[in-house]
Amino acid sequence: GATDVTLRVNGQARSLRIEPRTTLLDALREYLDLTGTKKGCDHGQCGACTVHVDGKRINSCLTLAVMTQGKEITTIEGLAKGEELHPMQAAFIKHDGFQCGYCTPGQIMSGVACVQEGHATSDPQAREWMSGNLCRCGAYPNILAAVREVAG
Ligand code: FES
């Protein structure tokens, strides 16, 4: 049956009552109204649902919400500081790193992890890291340019 859980999302404790099988993706979107995280394939193949758990990127469609209790969850909504965009968000705008925008939250969350974990120091390395994030519009060169710029 449903169970009470508390998730720490973008620095806030959020309580919700969910089935144990509820994915983190559904918990964020359906229960917490954090719809910036997108559902593409729901099977771990597109990266649209990428968020950070304790600073590591994960596919939230493959993660049970109950397993993330006590951890620090960051979604696209948690990146900007007030009106100030995260450098990765600003770089995506500068480099036109999106067309339809559906994959963008996941791309940005993966891009931030790419830089933080030191995988963005060359084009091939960054491309490899980002390869789990699909873009149907084919904005890959621009996405890569954004990630590489933030890596410095
Ligand atoms: Fe999770 Fe596609 S929705 S990887």
Can you walk through the features of this model?
Helix content is 32%, strand content 16%. α2 crosses α5 and α3 (104-116) runs parallel beside α5. It has two domains: 3-78, Beta-grasp domain (Ubiquitin-like (UB roll), Roll), CATH 3.10.20.30; 87-151, Orthogonal Bundle (DNA polymerase, domain 1), CATH 1.10.150.120. The longest helix is centred in the C-terminal third of the chain and has 13 residues, at 104-116. By secondary structure, the chain is of the alpha+beta class. The protein contains five helices and five strands; from the N terminus they run ββαβββαααα. The chain binds FE2/S2 (inorganic) cluster (FES). Residues 3-79 form the 2Fe-2S ferredoxin-type domain. Keywords: 2Fe-2S, Iron, Iron-sulfur, Metal-binding, Oxidoreductase. This is Xanthine dehydrogenase YagT iron-sulfur-binding subunit. One of its GO terms (molecular function) is 2 iron, 2 sulfur cluster binding.
TL;DR?
The protein has 152 residues and is an alpha+beta fold. Helix content is 32%, strand content 16%. A five-stranded mixed sheet has the order 2-1-5-3-4, sandwiched between helices.
